[in-house]
Amino acid sequence: MKIVYNGELDPRLCKDVLGATIAEIVDNDPNAIFLDADLMSCSGTLKWSKTTDRAIDCGIAESNMAGVAAGLAVAGFKPIIHSFGTFASRRIYDQIFLSGGYAKNDITVIGTDPGVAATMNGGTHMPFEDVALYNALPGATVIDASDPACLKSVLKQCQNRPGIKYIRVGRKQYARIYEDGSELPIGKAVTLKEGTDAVIFAAGLMLNEAMKAAASLEAQGISAAVLDCFTIKPIDADAVEAWAKKTGAVVVAENANRHGGLYDMILEVLAERCPTPAAVVAVEDEFGEVGTQGYLMERFGLTAAHIEAQVKAVLARKK
Amino acid sequence: MEIQERKSIEAFALKIRMAALEAIHSIGSGHVGGVMSISDTMAVLYGREMRFNPADPKWADRDYLVVSKGHAGPAVYATLALKGFFPYEELKTLNRGGTRLPSHCDRNKTPGIDVTTGSLGQGTSQAAGLALGNKLKGRKNRVFLIVGDGEMDEGQCWESFLFASAKKLGNLVVLIDWNKRQLDGYLDEVLPMGDFVAKMEAFGFDTVKVDGGNVEEIAAALERTRAGGDKPYAIVLDTVKGHGVDEIENTAMNHSMPVNDERFERWTAELKAKLDALEG
User: Fold this and answer.
1) Which range of residues forms the domain containing residue A38?
2) What ipTM describes this predicted complex?
3) Disulfide-capable partner of B218 in B44, B60, B107, B275 (CB 3.0 to 4.6 Å)?
């Protein structure tokens, strides 16, 4: 694993990396199988799907897709399913919960366009709640992918990981964080930047904002560490504890509702292991709406400036 | 069907009812109506149609049964116990803490149960996935799916039927327990379903309707499905909720009923008399 962050976008579209990785997994493992619900164009798999009998388009019937995946798991397959994050979470929740998790049928679920990445599809397609739903599913693994390299690494690991795995990732470009080919073990947070005054735990699209905020704070004489918490569940409790103790001030940045997501996972660790002043940059319990990603990040308070302000606010409470 | 085989399967169906009642009586109440209506089909499936091995429940080429109306668990447990998947006495652990026999079917608990069901509609998609998976693996086995008529209210059933038809799952047989009643009353009062045969045909299924209390008719319909082909099969079982015990049949709200000692003895005696008459 090598960190190569310099603030620039990875030239690749995430959906192309997603499609290529799915194809690689399915083509190399006779037990792997991919299902989509009329969104193969969006998961970058449409062209490839014509080359195999293990890419199944289920049509616009996500609940059935989740159940079919469970049945395929009973038959000995390792299914990967995809839809937009809203449908891949709340629309199929009972199916993925019971036919999947409860029945111990291992399934990897990919939900694209997390949070504000849903942009022009608007509030109906904007999952701020998907993380909370999957966090509440016993034994589930919940991932907010950091960049294309992270996506590739975690998707491959999920094939041999028991339970329900939920990966949320955008389809467009992400800031490049890791060198391609990096291995990012699920469950281990990554220190992107060292710091002594405060720590910012961030995931997904918020990593770039966190890094920008940390750079700006540095110029003002505030040393903030940045940790990539791409695994929301199981949270890397040891890393959270260590950095909370080291800095004494915690800010969490996530592209999701503040309730039930990464913030809650981290607060649990802080409350039980090392009570520490904390603050959050997340959606303040609101529904989504339409707009560009830039507009929406401002609208919901998810920018580097918001993180910077929260770091200062929490530092003021630090003893 | 030879007369001797018919009698043997009819006797099996009566024993399934008696065993299921014994299980439900042991805990005091349960889903009596829908257990009784499906007992004849269970007897035909496990008495002659399905390939399975109680000594090796996970045998890869076995036929699969998915009981999407998961609350019919006691009928399935009775059948599996009678076939030797687990000791008969275990039926009396139904719904007790730590049991392997929960109210609704659970593949991680009961030997011989392959698919977890209970949230209605969900067994249908799992059955379709299982049939597709078996087909992709080149297995010659089949998947039998039992669906409740009230369960067909669930939109997921129709999504899965469209899928099964589109994917040409000729190794899937859907058995619809058309017992006319759901929890709150008759289907025609709660949510009328119209003509199941026409609906399944319209969804691309090779469909027949049979008397779901007649083992010969059920057996003949199932034999037809051995041909496989490009269309999934549907068998509409014209059944009576509570079939086999007059008092249960004649109780309007018989979805779930208490089974106290007195009822248990009376109902078992009725079934036993039928069994004695059959076995001479």
Assistant:
1) 14-169
2) 0.95
3) B44
